[in-house]
Write a structure and sequence with these properties.
It comes from Neoroseomonas terrae. This protein is an alpha+beta fold and 996 residues long. It has 37 helices and 25 strands. The chain is globular. The two termini are 42 Å apart.
């Protein structure tokens, strides 16, 4: 129901008439217009202009604001007061009164120090720290020409403050004497470290991050907060407690992206810094954001406890009168500490209501939401964004309690609030979809469709997606409308297809789309492809460096230098891509409609895709320019259970090859294919874009008719009706098909196989017995695969490659592979073992096993890890991973069918992959690869060639092959992923053990 939003910087949403907490750095449209005021301590030129006043016990004669270094926000404020200027007067003004109260709300200051400024003028200097950002700050009370002068500003502005306070001209260089105040403040000035522009940059980044967070653009908010934190850490130091605020905002935006481990590191660091931060609300915010993180991690009980603690911590900062109905709202708004605590308290209460809803305590949640809103009302603070969120949370409680009409009305009102606060952004779209979901449940289809279509327009304009259950509700409304109005059905079915593309993509789909967008943008131009690859590599490098810095507990100048260099490389790459491939971003982000898919499909091709919700789903086919869409009366979990049954009966176990579950295979066909069988009939090539757990299934083994496990060769397998290629999403197919003619590599083939396993001693050093003894025993059992030698040699011969294009035995090492110019080969073939983290508990990444280099002390150098594959550069029509489970879940769970290995090879430059879904039989793998290659050389497409090889095994089982080969374990593990129309593919082989 809810997206979790950081709340610590909500003050900017209020639109109050009184100054905001950072009023002294508020934007000014005419900030750069004024008179010269000389240079600050950093030698940045400054200007002065009339400014706003602040509370004071004396009459204000003149107020001025100082702008330095081209910054558009005031670096200092100087106010001339009336009255006497005795030492006692200066002491009193510096110690108490309205000005000092105003100052204390914004900064924390040490006791005033008696000193003098230029010319020997008596003064009181206050060394302060800003609550927002922790920047060094100064305040000054001195004698002016007409009375006392009070001033405050960024520490480096003190020389300008002195000149203005004593009535010097803007360019004055001195007043006949040295400034003792400057000598006292020299340590805080840090003139070489920072200036007004640094503070301004930080403020702008924090404001930008807040705005992006409010519109639920968490990835972009991450970038803004990370940059703000970098400015702070560079200036104030990595261990400065005031960096905790930016760190917390960064952490919660990582958490909102489900990057939970990265977020936890930052939350822990911030918790250690928070007690010493200048902003007294920081410890409360730590508890609050830990609660949000617990909600993101699926632990509402822990979240509720943390949020309750946060409420108490915020409450301790709020005077008793501040939340009473008779509270003076304007006075409250003028105190940023109290204001921040009030907003935090209200949001912590609302977030705790979310935790209660998720814990099944919806009846308690509504009262808590009301408390949250009452806190805001009593304080005179009710920004539209916060009110919209409160309504949306209350609607969530109503839904859990069965009050659907009340929920729908609340959601529609909430959408209106979001439409005012952030029109055309994700919060409005989410709320419109939630309202439509309630309307369709109530049978009010027309109102539901109105809400869904308005929300979908926002999603398309902003190029964002929503959770699958919300999109399934939209499809449900369209399906009902199509059934009720047959004449409108074609258009409504096409709308269903387009709507399904608005669902948030799996990490697999996003990852592969990034790679295919590179190919599409380059249109076959290697230089353009290289530019886009450079940008993608720079993005990846920066993310890894940022994670390294987040996890580090100490200042690391060398790491900071590497980040700065990487940022420069990324900026350069961005410029190059903008010039060379202006369509890249559009390819990367845009969803596709049915017409786009229809244009990408060839004669006799169809695309089959589906979307699975919690209780139901939909299957859709695009063929010959039309769309067929049907309801699946089963949710994701039930479909996942069928997929698990099929996979378990397909994979070899301790007892050998199990009895195949023909019932589950037929039931999946009945759900996914039978409803659209009429539209699919006669399609020679079937492109399948699976969803959720179906990504873990080779569709060729679905059974169109019931079959006996004892007569599998005669089964009506889906592969008998269609050649099949899999894609992570319809968008991937469209992008790949738009990518031009394919590989421009000059050489046909390179293959690697017949590895020499590491020794038992080498495995033991990689998997220590005290922690990974079981892994060492399993890894030691990885036997040599002699059939892969014949597989690679046959592939090389069939493709006419040179003799040195088969790298075998002890020569097949990871260094040898890296030395090869892999981007010069149209087919890259790896025939060996593969290991996944789920198989070896001490293995952190999916890996391919090669021969260890001579003299290697451990087995580690024999593992090609997925992260290392990312650094390879290919231009391959086809990469064959003829090893175990290279297309399987890969340790990430949740039906992410492409393992880290397969996704990494797409990123490295593969247009198509031939991978396996489980451990393969060595002889069957060799036959499959060799026959696929032979058919491709005869002119068949990749998908048709693989189908032919699989049918050969099925048809020959019990004749020229053992009858057991009719079992899917032997013929079904290989699948094609990507563009199945082009690209030759490797190899043949011998007979040997199962390839793990």
């Amino acid at each position: 129901m809810r997206t979790l939003i950081a709340t610590g910087a909500l003050l900017g949403l209020l639109g109050c008439t009184e100054p905001s907490p950072d009023a002294y750095v508020s934007r000014s449209a005419s900030a750069t217009a004024g008179e010269p005021a000389g240079n600050d301590a950093r030698n940045e030129p400054c200007q002065v202009q009339p400014g706003r006043t602040m509370p004071a016990d004396r009459q204000v004669l003149r107020a001025r604001e100082v702008f330095c270094g081209g910054w558009t926000q005031p670096a200092a404020r100087v106010v001339e007061l009336s009255g006497s200027t005795s030492g006692a007067d200066l002491d009193a003004i510096a110690a108490s009164g309205l000005w000092r109260s105003w100052l204390d709300q914004r900064v924390t200051c040490a006791a005033p120090t008696r000193t003098t400024i230029a010319g020997g003028t008596d003064a009181r200097l206050l060394a302060c720290t800003r609550r927002a950002g922790g920047w060094p700050h100064v305040a000054l009370v001195t004698r002016g020409p007409s009375g006392p002068v009070v001033a405050d500003g960024v520490a480096t502005s003190l020389p300008v403050i002195e000149r203005l306070a004593t009535g010097q001209s803007g360019g004055g260089g001195g007043g006949g004497g040295r400034s003792a105040a400057l000598e006292l403040a020299v340590a805080r000035l840090s003139a070489d470290a920072f200036g007004a522009a640094d503070v301004g940059r930080y403020e702008q980044l924090m404001t930008l991050g807040r705005d992006l967070n409010q519109t639920e653009n968490f990835a972009a908010a991450e970038d803004a907060y990370r940059a703000a934190l970098a400015v702070q850490e560079r200036v104030l130091g990595r261990d400065n407690p005031n960096t905790a605020t930016a760190m917390l905002h960064l952490a919660v935006n990582l958490s909102n992206q489900k990057r939970l481990a990265e977020a936890a590191v930052l939350l822990d660091r911030a918790a250690g810094l928070a007690p010493r931060a200048a902003d007294p609300a920081t410890p409360a915010r730590v508890l609050h954001y830990r609660g949000l993180h617990a909600l993101n991690a699926g632990d509402p009980a822990a979240a509720a406890g943390l949020l309750l603690e946060a409420e108490g911590s915020y409450g301790s900062l709020i005077p008793a009168s501040a939340t009473a109905r008779e509270a003076d709202a304007m006075n409250l708004v003028s105190d940023p500490v109290v204001q921040s605590a009030v907003l935090g308290l209200a949001e912590a209460k609302r977030n705790r209501a979310v935790a209660m809803i998720r814990s099944g305590r919806a009846s308690e949640a509504a009262a808590l939401v009301d408390e949250s809103r009452q806190v805001l009302r009593n304080a005179g603070l009710e920004p539209n964004m916060m009110v919209g969120r409160a309504m949306r949370t209350e609607a969530g409680a109503d839904i859990r309690l069965g009050r659907n009409e009340a929920a729908a009305q609340l959601l529609e009102r909430a959408a209106g609030r979001f439409g005012v606060a952030a029109p055309g952004e994700r919060p409005e779209a989410v709320t419109l979809f939630l309202a439509g979901q309630q309307r369709i449940r109530a049978g009010r289809r027309a109102e539901a469709l109105t809400a869904f279509r308005a929300g979908a327009a926002i999603l398309r304009a902003r190029q964002i997606g929503l959770p699958v259950p919300l999109i399934v509700a939209y499809l449900d409304a369209l399906d009902q409308e199509a059934n009720a109005n047959p004449g409108l059905s074609p258009g409504l079915r096409a709308e269903m297809f387009g709507a399904a593309q608005l669902a948030q993509r799996s990490s697999t789909a996003r990852f592969v789309q990034q790679a295919s967008a590179r190919l599409g943008a380059s249109e076959g131009n290697p230089a353009v492809q290289g530019a886009v690859r450079g940008l993608q590599d720079a993005d990846r490098e920066l993310r890894e460096l940022f994670a390294e810095r987040d996890a580090s507990g100490t200042q690391n100048p060398a790491l900071d230098d590497r980040i700065a260099a990487a940022q420069q490389r990324r900026a350069q790459s961005e410029s190059e891509v903008a010039a060379a491939a202006p369509g890249y971003r559009q390819l990367l982000l845009a969803s596709v409609d049915a017409d786009s898919v229809a244009r990408a499909l060839g004669q006799g091709e169809a695309l089959l895709t589906m979307l699975l919700g919690p209780q139901q789903g939909f299957v859709m086919v695009v063929r010959d320019g039309r769309v067929d869409a049907r309801r699946i009366p089963m949710g994701e979990d039930a479909v996942a259970a069928l997929v698990t049954r099929v996979r378990r009966s397909s994979e070899i176990g301790p007892g050998g090859v199990p009895r195949f579950d023909t019932e589950a295979a037929h039931e999946l066909h009945r759900l996914l294919v039978t409803p659209v069988a009429g539209t699919l009939a006669g399609a020679g090539n079937l492109v399948v874009a699976p969803d959720g757990p179906l990504l873990a299934l080779p569709f060729g083994l679905l059974l169109a008719q019931p079959a006996s496990p004892d007569a599998l060769g005669a089964g009506d397998w889906l592969v008998r009706r269609h050649a099949i290629v899999h894609v992570p999403s319809p968008q991937t197919l469209v992008t790949l098909r738009a990518a031009g003619t394919g590989s421009t590599a000059p050489h046909p083939y390179i293959g690697f196989g017949d590895f020499v396993p590491p020794s038992a001693a080498q495995f033991a050093r990689s998997f220590p017995a005290d922690r990974c003894g079981r892994d060492a025993r399993l890894a030691t059992g990885l036997g040599r695969l002699p059939g892969t030698r014949a597989e690679v040699l046959t592939s090389r011969a069939l493709l006419g490659a040179a003799a040195d294009r088969a790298i075998l035995g002890a020569d097949f090492t990871i260094p040898a592979l890296r030395r090869q110019p892999l981007n010069q080969f149209r087919v890259v073939h790896l025939a060996t073992h593969a290991l996944l983290p789920g198989e070896l508990s001490c293995l952190t990444e999916p890996s391919i096993v090669a021969s260890p280099p001579s003299g290697a002390p451990s087995a580690d150098p024999a593992f090609l890890k997925a992260s290392e594959v990312l650094d390879l550069k290919m231009d391959a029509d086809l990469v064959i991973l003829s090893a175990c489970n290279t297309g399987g879940p890969g340790g990430e769970g949740g039906g992410e069918a492409l393992s880290g290995l397969a996704r990494a090879f797409f990123y490295a430059g593969a247009r198509g992959l031939m991978v396996t879904h489980w451990a393969v039989d060595d002889a069957a793998a060799a036959l499959t690869v060799a026959d696929t290659l032979r058919r491709q050389q005869g002119g068949a497409s990749s998908s048709a060639s693989l189908r032919g090889a699989q049918l050969l095994i099925l048809d020959e089982a019990g004749r020229n092959l053992p009858s057991a080969f009719a079992h899917p374990y032997y013929w079904a593990p290989f699948v094609l992923i990507g563009d199945g129309r082009r690209g030759p593919g490797p190899s043949a082989g011998a007979t040997a053990p199962s390839r793990l």
